[in-house]
């Protein structure tokens, strides 16, 4: 058996991977001439001998990745069409998703009707729109936007996700007209047809949507409650078409064909593996395509293909060769794939199993090996969950020991076979059984989730993260018995919070980027106050849960002493329930208290109330009494230390501003009243405050035209520097008791990469 070629090749795979991944840390892509010169240099280095070939491979991977990224950036909405409302037409692709207030879908082969200008692949949301079906051709009136998202510490990078999905434009649909409903008979159309048949067959089955996630990879149908249960039990991976399911299907097909040959049911003039391997690869490819070729299925399909091709060629390279080869191939095919958490979690899980189970597959019994594999996954993925800001579950190993066999060996085979029976013969009974088996599992998971809340931990810093990862690898290695003391000593650093804290008498203010809304964190040395919590959108997207809470965790805030809600408007208080649900909050104070959610148990905002934390004074300056308009009832808070001050104003208007004149309002930082509306920020008020900065917390190109140009001009006229969350992302200011203060960072500039706007 000749294994020299795979062994020779594996030396170059890490070098190739390094080159492919390197551009993801670039703030800007180098020009095209660099790619041309790099290509020539790589060829020259390869010809200079073996010592320079690793460098040549790194450079080749870099050139390949840079070329792909350049092409991807060119396929974005032209700047001239940004924020334009146009008549466009295109074909529905992917699996349309029903939202709480309309439909979300993808549009391909789109163009501007009037000019014929081709448009990039886009993601569209049709508020209050009619149902759309994959493959249909539509004409829409739509407002187009370049891909852009909010920018906050620890929060989901929406722009990175859009870039990885090859989405070059966003569209808000205003009206539409179906042109034709002819199907192209592509894989997306097949997925849509299968989904429709399953929904019809399972019409009277509770929890039918769950089965769709396992058959066609449609996770959008899962409810918020289902996702909460899965996160609490660490079983989210079970509800996607994962690499495990693809691998099991390929193994089953390969085994059945081989068994049929051994039993004499197949008489072939060639070795059985020549039929078994291609059929197994074909089955795996069909299942992966049915899942929309998500990254975990890509990884599994490539590894299955490589393993079976090795069998066909009668070669047996080690598992690391297959793992590294699949890793490099996925990144070569899609250099943006590493921007997705699923990429790393999928590959790391398999890599950990290879590492942690090496030399142990023949030890002890089946249940020992199965339990060990779950221990390896649980411990090994811990650092990667921290890296991506994802919650961990302490009960995950136990639940997965039971849930993985249930889903993989019972639910998925029954669901796939049931789907075939339904499509071919119209027999749904096996689908019903699969749905009921899945419901039984969810009942068990719901029970377990009642006793456990998923843990959110801050990223411990790169040094601590590296030490913790090294400790875990040592603990999982064959040398664990010799290294367990230093390995265990490395683990506590993963729990450390490296975030600095203000000194005594200092306070820090962080204004989060929550779009058209408001959320501000005020920190002293030992205490934290959150002023407003962002919105909970009608689509179900909760900024308190998706943006504010992850940011608080990342900034090392484990609890809130006070959650102060300026008033009851959704863009200020909508995310409050998520905050209270996910972290301890000692006290909730609210303007417009009677209109707040009862579950918050808020006390009324009382002007004149004061308290002191670590030498920093907090003073509630103003809140109009009932029955004043909602905005005027905003709870205005002044935070001060020495000569430093900050004024947080909610949505007060000119009337409220005049009511406050004569009180102590001076501040270095002013949060612009009502997001910079023209009904606020009067000359008299701004002069009374005398700020150095004014922060406008408003959505990018929002429909309210906040901040109003006249208001911005007014602040500039009074020598106040305007700062925008829509441009800078989250903002951090520090105050030490002296007049002035300091702007520490704008998160968008601090974390900018080439795919960011």
How would you characterize this protein structure?
By secondary structure, this protein is α/β, with parallel strands linked by helices. The chain has five domains: about 10-75, no CATH class; about 80-185, Beta Barrel (OB fold (Dihydrolipoamide Acetyltransferase, E2P)), CATH 2.40.50; about 240-365, no CATH class; about 460-495, no CATH class; about 505-750, Ribonuclease Z/Hydroxyacylglutathione hydrolase-like (Metallo-beta-lactamase, Chain A), CATH 3.60.15.10. Helices cover about 45% and strands about 15% of the residues. It contains 26 helices and 20 strands. The strands form three sheets. An eight-stranded mixed β-sheet has the order 11-10-9-8-7-6-19-20. A seven-stranded mixed β-sheet has the order 12-13-14-15-16-17-18. The chain is globular. The two termini are about 55 Å apart.
Percentage of residues in DSSP E strands: 15-25%
Instruction: Label the structural class.
Output: alpha/beta
CATH superfamily caption of the largest domain: Ribonuclease Z/Hydroxyacylglutathione hydrolase-like
Extended strand count: 20
CATH class of the largest domain: Alpha Beta
* CATH fold title of the largest domain: Metallo-beta-lactamase, Chain A
Helix content: 40-55%
Question: Reading side by side through the largest sheet, how are the strands ordered?
Answer: 11-10-9-8-7-6-19-20
Q: Which residues form runs of ≥5 with pLDDT under 50?
A: none
What's the pLDDT, averaged over the residues? 89
Count of discrete alpha- or pi-helical segments spanning 4 or more residues: 26
**Radius of gyration from the alpha-carbon trace, in angstroms:** 29 Å
CATH architectural category of the largest domain: 4-Layer Sandwich
Distance from N terminus to C terminus (CA atoms, Å) equals: 53 Å
Shape assignment = globular
How many structural domains are formed by the residues? 5
Subunit organisation of the chains: single chain
């Amino acid at each position: 058996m000749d294994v020299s070629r795979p062994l020779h090749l594996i030396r170059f795979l890490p070098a190739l991977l390094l080159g492919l991944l390197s551009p993801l840390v670039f703030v800007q892509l180098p020009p095209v001439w660099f790619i041309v010169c790099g290509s020539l240099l790589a060829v020259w280095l390869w010809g200079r001998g073996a010592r320079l070939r690793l460098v040549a491979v790194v450079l080749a991977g870099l050139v390949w990745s840079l070329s792909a990224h350049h092409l991807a950036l060119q396929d974005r909405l032209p700047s001239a069409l940004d924020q334009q409302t146009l008549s466009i037409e295109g074909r529905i692709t992917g699996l349309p998703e029903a939202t709480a207030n309309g439909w979300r879908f993808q549009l391909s082969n789109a163009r501007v009707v009037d000019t014929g200008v081709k448009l990039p692949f886009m993601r569209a949301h049709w508020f209050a729109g009619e149902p759309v079906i994959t493959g249909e051709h539509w004409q829409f009136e739509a407002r187009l936007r370049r891909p852009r998202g909010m920018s906050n510490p620890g929060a989901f990078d929406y722009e990175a996700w859009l870039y990885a999905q090859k989405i070059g434009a966003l569209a808000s649909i205003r009206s539409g007209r179906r042109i034709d409903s002819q199907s192209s008979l592509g894989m997306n159309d097949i997925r849509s047809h299968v989904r429709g048949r399953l929904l019809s067959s399972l019409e009277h089955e509770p929890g039918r949507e769950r089965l769709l996630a396992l058959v066609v990879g449609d996770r959008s149908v899962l409810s918020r409650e289902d996702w909460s249960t899965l996160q609490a039990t660490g079983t989210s991976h079970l509800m996607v078409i994962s690499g495990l399911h693809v691998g099991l299907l390929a193994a089953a097909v390969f085994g059945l064909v081989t068994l049929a040959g051994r039993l004499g049911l197949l008489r072939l003039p060639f070795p059985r593996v020549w039929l078994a391997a291609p059929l197994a690869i074909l089955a795996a490819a069909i299942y992966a395509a049915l899942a929309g070729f998500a990254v975990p299925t890509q990884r599994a399909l490539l590894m299955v293909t490589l393993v079976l091709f090795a069998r066909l060629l009668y070669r047996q390279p080690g598992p690391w060769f297959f793992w590294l080869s699949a890793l490099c191939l996925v990144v070569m095919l899609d250099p943006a794939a590493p921007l997705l958490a699923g990429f790393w979690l999928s590959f790391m899980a398999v890599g950990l199993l290879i590492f942690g189970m090496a030399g142990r597959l023949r030890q002890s019994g089946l249940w020992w090996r199965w339990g060990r594999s779950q221990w390896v996954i649980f411990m090994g993925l811990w650092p990667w969950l921290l890296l991506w800001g994802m919650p961990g579950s302490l009960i995950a190993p136990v639940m997965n020991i039971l849930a993985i066999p249930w889903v993989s060996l019972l639910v998925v085979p029954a669901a796939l076979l049931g789907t075939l029976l339904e499509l071919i013969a119209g027999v749904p009974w096996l689908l019903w059984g699969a749905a009921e088996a899945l419901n039984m599992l969810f009942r068990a998971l719901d029970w377990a989730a009642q006793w456990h809340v998923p843990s959110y931990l801050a990223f411990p810093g790169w040094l601590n993260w590296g030490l913790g990862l090294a400790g875990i690898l040592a603990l999982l290695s064959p040398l664990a018995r010799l290294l367990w003391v230093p390995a265990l000593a490395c683990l506590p650093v993963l729990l450390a919070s490296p975030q600095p804290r203000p000194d005594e008498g200092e306070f820090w203010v962080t204004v989060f980027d929550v779009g058209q809304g408001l959320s501000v964190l005020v920190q002293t040395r030992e205490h934290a106050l959150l002023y407003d919590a962002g919105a909970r959108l009608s689509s179900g997207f909760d900024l308190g849960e998706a943006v504010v809470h992850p940011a608080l965790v990342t900034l090392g805030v484990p609890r809130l002493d006070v959650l102060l809600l300026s008033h009851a408007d959704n863009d200020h208080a909508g995310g409050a329930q998520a905050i209270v649900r996910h972290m301890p909050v000692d006290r909730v104070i609210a303007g417009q208290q009677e209109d707040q959610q009862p579950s918050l148990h808020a006390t009324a905002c009382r002007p004149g109330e004061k308290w002191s934390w670590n030498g920093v004074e907090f003073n509630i300056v103003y809140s109009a009494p009932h029955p004043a308009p909602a905005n005027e009832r905003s709870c205005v808070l002044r935070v001060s230390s020495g000569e430093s001050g900050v004024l947080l104003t909610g949505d007060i208007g000119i009337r409220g501003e005049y009511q406050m004149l004569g009180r102590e309002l001076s501040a270095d930082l002013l949060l612009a009243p009502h997001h910079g509306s023209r009904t606020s920020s009067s000359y008299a008020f701004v002069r009374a405050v005398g700020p150095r900065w004014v922060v406008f917390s408003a959505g990018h190109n929002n429909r309210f035209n906040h901040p109003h140009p006249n208001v911005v001009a007014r602040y500039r006229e009074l020598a106040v520097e305007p700062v925008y969350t829509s441009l800078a992302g989250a903002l951090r200011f520090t105050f030490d008791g002296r007049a002035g203060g300091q702007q520490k960072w704008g998160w968008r500039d601090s974390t900018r990469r080439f795919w960011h706007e």
